[in-house]
Amino acid sequence: MKQKLLFSLCCLLPAVIWAQSTRFEILPFVNGTTTIKEGQLEAGPFFSWKNVSAGRKLAIQPTLRLPLTDKDNNLLQIDRFTKTWRSIVAFQYARDFTTAASPLITGYILSFQGEYGFSEFKYYPTGKKTDALKEGKHSYAFELKYIRYRNVGAAHGKQISPQFRLRYSYDWEAADKVGVVRPPNGNGLATTTDMVVDRPSATPTLSPAAALQYYPGQGNFSYAPALYYDMSGKNRQSNPFNDLHRLRVEAWAFFYPLAEGNVKIGLSPFLSIRTKGDDDYRTLEYGGLITVKFGTTFLQFL
Amino acid sequence: MAKQSKPKAGGRKLTLSLAPVKGSITLFYAFVNDVKVLWDDGTAKRSWTGIIPDTQVRIKVRVVGIGAAEYGLNIDLPGIANDQSLNLQLQGGYHETEITL
Question: Cβ contact (<8 Å) for A256 and B36?
């Protein structure tokens, strides 16, 4: 069985990821946001309330994510054929305890995200175009994230940020296309047509993660050891514990160039160990990861 | 620790802006008479506008980032100090400055 978990391709090949985003004011307390990332367009309002003097902020962001029809031109076409979409609602609560008098800079960010999407899958179990079957499937995911930060508010002070994330997802995916042999034509030539013959599959996954961001107070590098434990369940079941488990260890070093745009460039070796079940990879896999992020900060990691 | 209180109403309008210039800025803070008026991440320009008392006011800016990142501090106090801008640099990921108006 092909496991399409986050750790598979993502951790076996070096990856370079960046996004284009913009935020603009619609009304007081309401902003509009758009993001184009990995061939997907996300758009929606952004509601925020804050009491800065008390150090409290609440933000709610409902968004709609749609795949780009033409990635080269950032073109999204919405019509009766648009059958893959995802709605996302994110809540973020931030608390900050920093004062003018105390040297400590400290606080936390707690966020929760729920995702729901509907996709229609078409497949041909007999290998004939006339015998098409359609199935509409609901995918969903939940994510909880906690980011703590604590710095010594002084020149060359150390900065640390422990971070935790828990994500559960239940995603439906179309089966791969296979070549179906057509009957020979008048000249005796047999050809093949690529078709989806299998039903769509759904994999439940649960992935807790923990990381510790650390800046030593000098230089342009920060460091972040991170631990992920990805668990997946059997096809079409909601239990995420009964199939494949993998532990992944990463050790990131981020470089922050003195350039405009809050850029960080990250590099990490990784080690992925299969602790339960079976997949297409070796029990122990290793390799490297690269990332380039724009408009980001030290705190944004998991 | 100083007790925080809201800035008292007065006759002077103050606009305070902090913006990233170079490198990575994580957090911006600004305090007016020890009251936190600005707290945001350092990915974009952040501003606060409010009325400050006619008496002496102490502004404190605290900025967290990485290395020697640079940020811009802009103070606009119409009639007294129009658009005063400063480019400041972190030292080992931190910088703070105090201004009395």
Answer: no
Q: Which residues 14-33 of B have a C-beta within 8 angstroms of A?
A: 20-27, 29, 31
* pLDDT 10s digits, A136-178: 889 999 999 999 999 988 999 999 999 999 999 999 988 888 9
- Predicted ipTM of the assembly: 0.84
| Pairwise CB contact (< 8 Å): A257 & B23 | yes
Per the CB < 8 A criterion, the answer to whether A181 and A193 are in contact is: no
- B68 in contact with chain A, both atoms CB, cutoff 8 A: yes
Q: Taking CA A72 as the corner, what is the angle to CA A71 and CA A77, rounded to the nearest 5 degrees? A: 50
The pair phi, psi for residue A29, each rounded to 5°, is: 75, -5
Whole-angstrom CA distances from A297 to A37, A41, B64 are: 18, 22, 10
Residue of A182, A97, A104, A171 whose CA lies nearest to A138: A171
Instruction: Render pLDDT for B80-98 as a digit per residue (tens, 0 to 9).
Output: 766 788 999 999 999 999 9
Q: Is residue B90 part of a domain?
A: no
Q: How many residues does chain B have?
A: 101
- Any CB–CB contact under 8 A between B98 and chain A? no
Please compute Rg for chain B using Cα positions. 13
Domain assignment of residue B84, yes or no: no
Q: Cβ contact (<8 Å) for A258 and B69?
A: yes
Does A154 reach chain B within 8 Å, measured CB to CB?
Answer: yes
Residue B32 belongs to domain spanning: 10-68
Is the CB of B94 inside 8 Å of chain A's CB atoms?
A: yes
Judge: B60–A53 Cβ closer than 8 Å, yes or no.
Answer: no
CA nearest to A120, candidates A132, A138, A108, A106: A138
Residue at B77 is within a domain: no
Of A30, A31, A11, A12, residue with least CA distance to A22: A31
Residue B91 covered by a domain = no
Token pair in block for residue A254? 């981020």
B39 vs A: CB within 8 A: yes
B38, B21 contact by CB (below 8 A): no
Domain count, chain B: 1
